[in-house]
Queue: 2 jobs
Job 1
Amino acid sequence: MITKELINPQSIVVVGGSNDIRKPGGKALKNLIDQEYKGKLYVVNPKADEVQGIKSYRDVNLLPQVDLAILAIPAQFCPDTMEILAKEKGTKGFIVFSAGFSEESEEGARLEKRMVEIANQYNASLIGPNCIGVINTNYAGVFTTPIPKLDPKGIDMISGSGATAVFIMESALPKGLTFNSIWSVGNSAQIGVEEVLEYMDENFDPERDSKVKLLYIEKIEKPQKFLKHTQSLIRKGCRIAAVKAGSSEAGSRAASSHTGALASSDEAVSALFRKAGIVRCQGREELATVAAIFQQKELQGDSVAVVTHAGGPGVMLTDALSNGGMKVPPIDQHIQKDLLEHLFPGSSAANPIDFLATGTAEQLDYILQTCEERCDNIDAIAVIFGTPGLFRVFDAYDVIHKHIEKNKKPIYPIMPSTSEAAEEIKHFQAYGHQSFHDEVLFGQALVKVWKTPKPSTLDVPLPEDINTEKIRQIISTADNGYLSPENVSNLLDAAGIPRVPEAVVDTQDQAVARANEFGYPLVMKVVGPVHKSDVGGVVLGVQSEEEVKDHFKRLMQIPDAKGVLLQPMAKGVELFVGAKQEPKFGHIVLSGLGGIFIEVLKDVQSGLAPISQDEAMQMINSLKGVKMLEGARGTKPVDKTRFADIISRVSLLCQLAPEIVEMDINPLLADGDKILAVDARIRIEK
Ligand code: ADP
Ligand code: MG
């Protein structure tokens, strides 16, 4: 639980505060003093009566009542100290810097558990242990620097790693970013990232609160809670970007050794973020760049004007935006003509608008005004303006400032001369603006923000033709493991997933009889082995009774063969839909084109169940091979809506039958608006 004493303490004690500011207890005390903490401040130090000018008690028992305690003492002393404070001193907030808990040993885990019990018993908040602490506009309860500029409209940052939080600030501060709060949750013993998000969500006030949240996470313990609150915050107008580290196998080893964190499957994390509407970043610099984009007016379309006095960066930015699928569209001919009349000869007004190294502040003013007022095909303006060192650029930066204040379209200031124009950038940021230093990093981040979907619904209604009762009946009577072909077919039918007709036979006579019913050409498959082609167990294009007999004999000789499955031949583009249960996350549904598209190109999109028709459509449209479905190279276009419906139905089937641990429909054959499953396997675990 998060108490008001943690957020806004009227008094703070630093237990283990010292005069040595190279030690956490000394540095935290110094930070509180330097940041002019307004409440009462105390220290507990057995060897001193005064520390850094603050009254020190030799024993916690001697303290007066105190709201918040910061513990910078060895792990083994923490639980007892907490107990005295919680029981005798009315303390309702604890920040424990100390390491040596669950991240280190069994004994440490026991100590940590006791601290949580004490905090819970006394309705107190516990941040940490093994963290750098908390900073907000009320106090700086950390033992690290930098302390960023605090501002109610600045960033809220929650970090699973203290050192990373510090370095994210290092990336953010040069961009002019400010912070509203920083939460380093350490081992997340009582309060983890999810709980902080829950608090922010439940107490959200659109007038008062910051709308920009950054997360650095190494483990998502409660994905459903995480999803609920991030999605809710985003719906309330917040914008969230996150780094989830530990995604590669080597990365997750590093994460395990770091905070005892275990990386969840990376695909599940991406799916979770997309469902929530979180921009997923790969590193600090990208995270800070996205945060600076979040602080600008919200982008309403994908067309950007690139305004620059330096050709190269303008071209690089144009490339970054276009390669990411955004537009740098030409400016209207007559507007171009008018612009050129106001610019030096040799300028270009096509877009990028390049007004040359000698371009002036007045010219920039005219360009920005034109883009804002007259260019209907422009949604945002990126201005790249530095200095080659010949003159100062205060006047140009003041022009950018003026337009940011009054324009409706977002303006992104890219200021590359971080040393040569350092003073001007400082001057510009002092107005409360942010700036970017690298046009390509900026362009890539803008693409990411633009492409991140809005939160998708968690509440997908069941189509009427899904037979829930039948699904439950099949699952409850089936055994664990791979389901029989009959059960698979019945499940697909109950879920309304279209498939080819099929028959399973175990004698040659039956095979011939059923083959003649279906007609030719036919497909024959061995029943039993999981990967049928690998054991020579699939025969396509069977043409006659004779062939049926021969293939039947051969297929039945394959080890583990239990029977033979007959299907009519289907044709079309191969599609794939699969699902996998991810502990705590639910089911991730994967889909794509079949064959080499999944196996070689790994062109797969994923989503977290339940998936609505719209979300499924977004998945399909994000496939690299989507053009193949739209009728590339003379093929018949595939009905994407029908495909989306099937993806959504697979996700709903998994919701209705959570016992499904894996399922694979590979392939579905799509011929125009006819899409049929020809091979499916489903494994359940009750
Ligand atoms: P497995 O995946 O176990 O090897 P499949 O049943 O998927 O076996 O068959 C292998 C391949 O044969 C499929 O990927 C598909 O290309 C083709 N195939 C299977 N069934 C049919 C069918 N009914 N009509 C047309 N092609 C089929
Ligand atoms: Mg297959």
Job 2
Amino acid sequence: MPNEKTLVVIGAQWGDEGKGKIIDLLSQNAEVVVRFNGGNNAGHTVIVDGKTYRFRLLPSGIISPKTLNVIATGVIINLNGLLEEIEEAEKNGLLIKNLYISDRSPLVLPYHILLDKFYEEKRGNKKIGTTARGIGPAYTDHFSRDTLHVGDLFDKEVFKEKLNYIYSLKKATLSSDFQLPPFEEVYNSQLNTFEKLMEKGVTITDTSKLIYDHIKAGKKILFEGAQGTLLDINFGTYPFVTSSFTISGGVCVGAGIPPQSINKVIGVIKAYTSRVGEGPFPSEIKDELAEIIREKGQEYGTVTRRPRRVGWLDFVALRYAKRINGFTELAITKLDVLSGLEKLKFVVAYKYKGRIIDEFPSSLNILEKCEPITEEISGWKQSLKNIKNYNDLPENVIKYKERIEKELETKITIIGTGPARDEIILLKDPWE
Ligand code: IMP
């Protein structure tokens, strides 16, 4: 069912594009904000009036008291993590009401976290560099049909029976180095947390129907993507990916809505590239400039605080992201971090065994041997602080933006000039 008021926000790179800020801007006018993939491996940072909010599972619309916030079926839920996050948000003065969670969402249980660490250890020098939140093992259980769902907690006996069965399977898998906590402890803790969430007014329901009703009523709905295109389980740099569908198609499978209900897809691009964890990164900067950008951009994991690797904008990867997601417009973030650099680069193609490649390779073996072919562009000296009008931006910022637009044949309609909520230039309101 078409609805002209649905927006999807997707990270165009390896996550950490600054989606939190864009989502915050758009959710101020949204009636419903929906998370549709991932779990508490995500970390969306929003800064309002000097106060920093970090969301992992909570939709960023939680800042606005009027918005309906939905955690849909494609999201895996660590109940204890969610409760902690809610308590932290309450301490920060946020009111947690209007929070709806899918009864079909898979649970992340303590053994998933142990298994995540266990597998990483076993991988030796082939580590993925996961966030150790149990994400991979929880999605694995889901696909192998051994998952427990949030809705199972409504019936203690059913939950106990299912958990008991799965517990014996997990015990047999984990080595003695990774002792599972006692069954009763996990069972009681899940029930207690579930009850506390109910007391806080969280609603567990069929979120697919809830979203459908709002689409039908013509409400403004924002679908908030977590991670980024190149971390998608199918189309990312496998195996150095997360275990969910991070692309725009993930909205349909994660929220349970038909494709024709999606109107616009906004791709969020950071003005340079970063990636946390292992895996190929053709545009990576390997000299001391990387350290300068990392420090200036505070490129450290929101969840794990790990230093992120940084690189130039990669047009090969971005053209691929545009194709996979069908971006209708773009937002660019963190341009301010590049202020002061004399020369900037774009990766325009790759060289592999003497051949020029301009399509993002599906083979990791090829990708990791690709050398970047770059194009240089002049930087800008000025700080972008306090610039509120597009025409006041340094000329070279505008040239940088226009070069990206030309390459991706898509307009940049939102420009981030700093971390705070109001450090943003809106050229065209996507809700209109
Ligand atoms: P997992 O999602 O914890 O399994 O981690 C798999 C890969 O995805 C690792 O390289 C993580 O660093 C990366 N990853 C997961 N979530 C995020 C995110 O929100 N931002 C950036 N990278 C992420």
